[in-house]
Every structure is written in structure tokens, then in C-alpha cells.
Amino acid sequence: MIVLVVNCGSSSLKYQLVNMDNEEVMAKGLVEKIGLSDSQLTHKWNGQKKEIRQSIPDHHVAVKLVLDILTDGECGVIKSMDSIDAVGHRVVHGGEEFACSTLINDDVMKALERCSAMAPLHNPPNIIGINACKAIMPQVPQVAVFDTAFHQTMPPKAYMYGLPYELYTEDGIRRYGFHGTSHRYVAGQIAKVMGKAVEELRIINCHLGNGSSLAAIQNGKCVDTTMGFTPLAGVLMGTRCGDIDPAIVLHVMEKKGLSTQAMDTLMNKKSGVLGISGVSSDFRDLGDAAEKGNERAKLALDMFHYQVRKLIGSLAAAMGGVDVITFTAGVGENGIEDRAAICEGLEYLGAKLDAKRNDVRGKDALISTDDSTVKLYVIPTNEEIMIARDTKELVSK
């Protein structure tokens, strides 16, 4: 079975074509700046790369362009789009309606529209991508894989907020959590690497990147996570503020005369390590600036490391202990200094970092000492393969 994995953003489309007979990535790419004058597609296959710069006014054109290049005589990897057996879509928010991936039909599309109110930045482009694929490939099964689904196993004590109960029953206000596909992949992969059943492990997975979240995974199920009703909550991130006193929102809006949209932009786009440092949302840039003596860049990094370390402690308490802590995503997989700073002070948990082993990037690796009772690992995430696997399983049924 050949599966096309699609991840649509507001102005982008990431894709992978996967042969599920051996889980080989046949081709992958990115369409950027959809709807802008300088749109482009970057396509990679068989160790080669091709860039196409042209007008790409909408996602329908973007999907058509992707299918054209996948079947192109020069850089294509399939003869025609009839070779594509199914399409798997990343969908950010499934609310309480979806606790697992699902085949897309008219009822599912209506449910996705209802969930859009809870993820106005993410779900609408996800839906646009689905509709574009359905229009071009109407006979091909489409599957939705939700970022929120993995966290639906959290108990009410973990997902409820201290607000009037009616806000939950009438408006769905609760903790949902995100990055679920990544957390699920890493949980399965670390169990495989350690040679254990995932049901035997208490895992804290640190998905650290421009967007960051931690998840407590016990007996293979998520019992708590740091993101909340939206992906704004939890640890300080690239441009997102993370957890703050909610009264700050009202205070700043009143004092600065900000609209709800302006306040949302401030918290989502102008805060985080970018807002603290004034330098960049890229952790590599922050590291360089801190080394050169930039105190605000150093403060931003110190805050990030401290908050991740603090949340590791709280998630360990939620599970009554922890067996393994994993680091994944851009910063988690590649930030050698970041991992070292986060792990400094975790010895009380029994987690001891080995500096030599920690000198690693982008591959499965044990980074704790031999006498560390809590194991530390780097596990590169692979959300696309999880989407492809779910798609194959559902379509095969």
C-alpha cells in the first residue's frame, strides 16, 4: 500500500509518500508561502532535490502540484496518482469527538468544522487540505489523524480546569493536549529500543522545539500533558508565552488597549524566548547570542530549561515516579547543551546524564550513565510514519 501523508498549515503543505510494504519514504517535500507571490515547492526523492518557484494561489493548486511532481517523468516516484491507495491527514484538534484516527466521511467533516472554533489557526487549513485532496482524488480513502487523540486517556482530574463546570459541558473548555502523534510514536519507539512492553514503562516524553510539550505516559497511555485547551499552554516556547497568570491577559489588554486578536498575537507570536531575548525564536541563535554575552538570550534559555525541568518533576509526581525520560523534536533531538542544562538537577529523581553519551544528534541514543536508575534517551520523532500506519490500518479494514 502506498500512502500520501499530508500536513496542511495556513500557508504551507508538507507531504511524504510512503510505501507501507516496508515503510520506505519514497519522496517528501514542502510547499511554502501558498497564496503569496513568492510561493515555492521543494521536492526530495532518491537523495535528490528540486525546487519549483511559481504562483500557488491556494491549497487546491498546491495539492495538484504535489501530485504532478510525484508522477513527473524526471523526479516522480510513481507512474500516476492511481498508485496512491490512501491519504492520511494531520488534523490538530479533534476535541472530545475523536479519541483515535478515523476514516473521513461527511459526518467527520462536520465534526472537524465544529472543532475549528477551538483551533482557529490550525483546523481550517487542515480542512482545506482534506477538501483539496477529496476534490482531486475523490475515490481515494482519506484518513484524519488527530494531535489531540492520544491525550483522550487523561482522567478528569488532569484535564479539567477550575472554572464553572458549565464551561466544560456547554463549551468544551478543558485540557486537550497536542503533539499527541509525536508522543505516541516516541512511547512505542522507546519501548522497542529498551526491549520492553510500553505497558511496563512510566515515560516522560519531552517534545521540545519551536512548539514544546511534555507528556506523562503510563502503561502506554497518556495520563497528563503540559499543553492545554490550546497549544499556548505549558512551557515557554519559541514565540508562545506558555503558562502565565490569566489575570495578566486582562491587565495587559486594558492597560495597552489591545483587542482580543492583538492579545492573541502577542501571546502566540511575540512572546516566548523571542519576547524575552529580543533576538530570535531559534534556539541555535539564542545559544550563539548567549555565548557572546547577551544576558537576555541567556535568561530566555535559563527560563526554558528551568521550566522543562520543573514540569518533568510534576509529571513524575503524577505517575508516582518515572522509568525513562525521552527527548525529541528539533531542540530535544539536537540541543546537546539544552539537554544538559535541563538534566542538571534531576539527580534526585535518579536521572544522571552522561556528558559523553549526550554528544549526539538526531538518532536513537541512550544518554544517561550506567548507574542512572531513570534512563535518559534521545528518540527522533516521526509523526508522518504514525499517520501512515494509522491510515494503512483503517483503510485495510
Automatic annotation (TrEMBL):
Mg(2+). Can also accept Mn(2+). It is found in: Cytoplasm. The active site is at D147. Keywords: ATP-binding, Cytoplasm, Kinase, Magnesium, Metal-binding, Nucleotide-binding, Transferase. Its EC number is 2.7.2.1. GO terms for cellular component: cytoplasm. This is Acetate kinase. ATP binds at K14, H207, L208, G209, N210, G211, D282, F283, R284, G330, V331, G332, E333, N334. The record marks H179, R240 as: Transition state stabilizer. It catalyses: acetate + ATP = acetyl phosphate + ADP. Belongs to the acetokinase family. Substrate binds at R90. Its cofactor is Mg(2+); Mn(2+). Homodimer. Pathway: Metabolic intermediate biosynthesis; acetyl-CoA biosynthesis; acetyl-CoA from acetate: step 1/2. It comes from the Bacteria. Catalyzes the formation of acetyl phosphate from acetate and ATP. Can also catalyze the reverse reaction. Its main location: cytoplasm.
